[in-house]
Design goal:
By secondary structure, this protein is α+β, with helices and mostly antiparallel strands. It has 4 helices and 8 strands, in the order αβααβββββββα.
């Protein structure tokens, strides 16, 4: 029972550290062409660190380089499932999410929701979702676009969006 509690404490500590790292990286500088929306280098660092940790967990599991007790096996399998899923998500999001904006429209594409295009004049609200680390744009036709805090160019997008709403 104590081992499971320690695993949960470690997971909590990792989550808190990740929360602060994401908050720091949110302020990462915009180093791409004006009007573009792409993930920055810092996002890919997080994705690759996650992938590295996933590979390490798989290696430990496949080589049976752990105490083969039920609680240890369950904890290891749970970590493998979580980090494998998060690695797939982070890499897919980073490689396939992209967009741009100009004076007329916002264009955005993700692997999850496909291509979206909206006119600035149809924008009715911007809501920061701090627990999910994204901004949600709502449009007149009830459609939504979500832009991650870690997306390069998002700060400029928010600034222009607020001007358009004013």
């Amino acid at each position: 029972m104590l081992e499971i509690f320690l695993v949960l404490i470690k997971g909590f500590i990792i989550s808190v550290v990740t929360f602060f790292v994401i908050g720091y990286l949110k302020k990462s500088t915009y180093k791409i062409k004006k009007g573009d929306l792409k993930y920055t280098f810092s996002y890919f660092v997080i994705a690759l660190l996650n992938l590295t940790f996933t590979i390490l967990l798989w290696w430990v599991f496949l080589t049976k380089n752990y105490k083969e007790e039920l609680s240890q096996t369950i904890s290891l399998v749970a970590l493998i499932i979580f980090f494998s899923a998060s690695s797939i998500y982070l890499l897919a999001e980073g490689l396939f999410a992209k967009g741009r904006f100009d004076d007329e429209k916002i264009y955005y594409q993700t692997i999850w929701s496909g291509k979206k295009e909206q006119r600035w004049q149809d924008l009715i609200s911007i809501t920061p979702k701090d627990t999910l680390f994204w901004y949600e744009f709502k449009f007149r036709d009830d459609s939504k676009m979500r832009f991650s805090y870690l997306l390069g160019g998002v700060e400029e997008l928010i600034k222009i969006s607020k001007e358009k709403l004013a």
